Amino acid sequence: MQSSIATGPRRGHSWVFACLLPLLLLGAIPAAQAQLTPSVDIECSPVEIPVEVAPGTPATGTTTCTLTNDYFLSEEVNITVDVVDLVYAAPETVTVPGNDDVTFQVVYRAELGDPVKNIQSDINALVESAGGLPCLSCTEETFRVTVAIQQYGRPGLLIDPQELLLDPGQSGEIVFKVQNRGNDKDTITLDVVNRSGLEQLGVQFSFSGSSFELNADATADVTLTVTTTKEVGDGIFEVEITATSQHSVDEGNAWTINDVFRLETVAKQELILSVAGVPTWAVSVATILLLLAVVGAIVVVVKLVSNRRSLAADDFDDDDFDFDDDDFDDLDLDDLDLDDL
After folding, report:
1. pLDDT per residue over 160-191, tens digit each?
2. 3-class DSSP state for residue 291?
């Protein structure tokens, strides 16, 4: 019983040594490199796997792994992946010929909009069998990679429909919100499209803040003050406000959005008679002369009315109503017989 227990393992591996001995003697397997037991090595590249999660991206990252078999027989290698918060795809089993290597890929997938973070993942390789025989003594080999969720920048503007009507020298305000729609802290900068051109027309702009550092999904209130100069002209404009992600600019792929509001300006009404450039004394003299002319005209009108009234009074005389007896005799009133009536 003891002998069978002691000699059992030797008989179980005697075929291996029987096969190895001729190969060693012939030099087919260098003695220094010969692997007497099955095993596998694993290496993956890249070690850090970037994953873009901005809207419109596939949100995936890939690493390529190499399995190396220094054993003289073909090996069946089981592959497992340990990771949290991610979905992955990898082969379950890989066949690696003796003294050879084979590559395979592991693909990780995140969710769009995931926050910036690094996720550790272990890729494991275990020899299941060699030469068709199970390997009960084989141990698992592990390679660790890092899945790096990348930052992206997306600005946001929340502007309700608004209009401004400004006279010369007036000010008005547009109130709105700026938002960081990216997945990490970012600086959002504000500006007005064609700002210099509008300022030349007499419209000036002032933000309560031109840049805002915001966490992901955070917002900030903004007031845009619009002021017109006294020389502003008539005009109707669609003023375009822009918001830009500083992170996207730093990455070389600037991301800007815009929104508009309506602005109407009214020019100053010019007088028909302009005194621009006329000395003050000349204006004063002209004003006095104008007043004297008006007073003179009033005096003339009053005089004419008075004269007409005087003439009318002279034409109305009492003699026009003085009748003598001869005038009544001419009427033959004596011949009138009252009895005939």
Report:
1. 988 999 999 999 999 999 999 999 999 999 99
2. helix
Spatial distance between the Cα atoms of 341 and 339, rounded to a whole number of angstroms: 5
- Give residues with Cβ within 8 angstroms of 164, minimum separation 6: 172, 174, 226, 261, 262, 263, 264
Q: 183 has which bridge partners?
A: none
Cα 286 → chain centroid: 61
Q: How far apart are CA 228 and CA 267, in angstroms?
A: 10
What is the H or E stretch that residue 41 is in? strand 41-45
CB of 73 within 8 A of CB of 96?
Answer: no
DSSP string over 212-276: EEE-TT-EEEEEEEEEE-TT---EEEEEEEEEEEHHHHHTT---EEEEEEEEEE-PPPPPSS--T
Contact yes or no for 73/100 (Cβ under 8 A): no
Model-level pTM? Answer: 0.66
Which of 251, 253, 267, 257 lies closest to 193 in space, CA to CA? Answer: 257
